[in-house]
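Hi there,

I know you've been waiting on this one. I reran it after we fixed the sequence typo, so this is the corrected version. Both the input and the resulting structure follow.
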Amino acid sequence: MKFGKHLECLAIEAWKPNYINYKYLKGLVRELVEQDTKALEGGGILPVQPEGQNPFVIELNKQLAQTSAFYLQKQRQCQKRQEMLLARKKERLLQPSDAMLEFNVQIVVDSLVLSFTAFGEELYALKQFADVNAMGFRKAVKKHNKLRKHAAIAQFTSSIASAAFVAQDKLRDMIATVEAELHYLEKAKADLLSQRKPRADDSSSFMHKLSACFCNGDLLQFEALITGGALQSAGPAELRELFVMLW
């Protein structure tokens, strides 16, 4: 599959204006090559073209700046979300064990796992955005230099390499943090559940049924339990568990 098609398949619809316009850059290279060919046919000599006067470099800089700005904006949003998730984990999970056992541990941990998993998917989407754009800019420069050796822009490769969406240092750190947190949550779930003292009415309790619906994604049954009058018979502890589940 050619890169243009590959880029089109991977592009996230809402982010499309911020991807490299690879098709346009390819067309620009063709136009410049045609101009070079006409100049040579007329007996002219192609002079060495300064980068600052090269239409391709001007357009490349413009697109690189736009892609970089968008990536940095999304990176900042992800950093804020990570801070929020870590604070939520500390508030919900890192409590004294006796107090924690009053709540439905499985619901608390599963809720955090869902949140961190969704965040991880967002990070991987941003990484895919970064990777495909980095590849596109490198390919565009390579194509230009191959067809217009007299106006080669070898130095521009370093500008691409230093772009935030190519380096990805902070993004890699966030991905590593999410993976570590998910591992921690799975272990915490197993450890806390092993310490929990079973209640005599667990098998038929309102919260047991509610928890099962929530964890299995049975939203219809979940809604039926809440609206069907069973909520009125729930005790204070069960109401606290429900609050934690829905928060």
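Quick highlight: The chain has two domains: 3-197, 199-247.

Best,
R. S.
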